[in-house]
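Researcher: I'm comparing several assemblies side by side, and this is the next one on my list. It has 484 residues spread over four chains. Same procedure as the others: predict the full complex and return the structure.
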Amino acid sequence: MPEKLKPAGETRAADVLHRMRADIINCTLKPGMKLKFESLREMYEVSFSTLREALSRLVAEGLVVAEDQRGFIVAPVSIDDLNDLTDVRVLIERECLTLAIKRGDDAWEATIIGAFHRMDRLQERLGLKYYLSEEWTKLHGDFHFSLVVACQSPNLLEIRQKLFERAHRYRRMSSQFRTKWRAKDVEHKMIMEAVIARDPTKAGKLIERHIRETTANVVKYAGHLFEAPDEEPRSRAVRVSA
Amino acid sequence: MPEKLKPAGETRAADVLHRMRADIINCTLKPGMKLKFESLREMYEVSFSTLREALSRLVAEGLVVAEDQRGFIVAPVSIDDLNDLTDVRVLIERECLTLAIKRGDDAWEATIIGAFHRMDRLQERLGLKYYLSEEWTKLHGDFHFSLVVACQSPNLLEIRQKLFERAHRYRRMSSQFRTKWRAKDVEHKMIMEAVIARDPTKAGKLIERHIRETTANVVKYAGHLFEAPDEEPRSRAVRVSA
DNA sequence: AAATAAATTATTTTCGAAATTTTATCCAAA
DNA sequence: TTTGGATAAAATTTCGAAAATAATTTATTT
């Protein structure tokens, strides 16, 4: 086994892209932060051009903002963005769910049940602070994906995935400050049951409530982090501490 | 005035991105075509890294496909992709239209009427083959954008724009082979009237019909261009002729 | 002191050579 | 003839130096 690095088939740029996307989504790279090339070069151990390649993709995904001739910053967060994101997610998730219920087969149902079980067990094992776990986050993402994977629309799934990632960044911000946690997660179970009962109306309403309540919690616990009235009007961007 | 080049504020990479996106959308760079760096370098007069930057963005937009360690190809076209694209566009355009009708003000209505007028007059002037004109294409895009611009959702507008661009590539493919043209364009006028009458149900149905009929025409006139049963199983990609 | 300009420093952007990887060609063995 | 493997050629990917641009500091003038 090699000591450390292993892009394995993919290019170095693709590897950096994945790592950087993960770092932005889980707020290791903080919203609004200036992305200095020297720092990034140390952090990811690649050259300028390779970095720019990854950054360019992230710009297209809406996770990074390019300021022509003045570098890149991590996409800022705001209440407006969160609200808009929430509305669009409701539209897309509901459509995906409706289609999946129409088109999914038995194997699909089994996948959902499996994904829920994995998430649920880990949740029990981790106790109240499950939300802070990287592993639970992964399984939570897998569960939500399993619900819609049978919709058969590559475009919808692609759009959904990108929105889900951006929403996760907000969830991540609030999870640090959250004090109250639903002990037993009944929401996910209800969604799953409605989906397997092939009830698109009920499933749609439940997923909408799930998304909107999550947003409400984000605003409640992390709202104070958004749009801090700019102290330095000149350079709004936060510095990266190298 | 400088002789030729003028990125004007934006970076060289951003300039190449715009030119390349336009070339893919209007099929100067043909679907499935292998994108060789030497050819591209001549074509756009920039270096490897700058090219890769632009290509990376186009990958994220779904106009280019990256084949790890084996370069890039223009995103292929297919009936399946067109059908999926059509369904998702119907969903998104209808939502945008509904929201715009709810939220738009008088100035917005005026914008629509202006955009329609510009498109309509050019159409009259150009006669039957208006569809082949670059300028008409631009005004047509502007008109459709004006219909939804008041929806107030940056995310929906962004998604809509990217889908519209990809759909345009299909329209462009069929326009070369099309023999019958609707002499007077009544469809756009009806949509505009329903929107200004603030009738979301009617406007939604009309925009859906507009999109689906366009797709039907694409299949009719350009369907034979899709998914030519691969003659060379090894290298499916078409070569760029430098 | 405040404002403007010039010079300096810091940072980003671009380039093409060098390294890596894939693809094509050739040759020997079955 | 076909198969497998080495060798050569072609293409992509990565790198860091050099050029271009922006930000900061210093100097000069009002």
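Model: For your comparison table: The mean pLDDT of chain B is 90.
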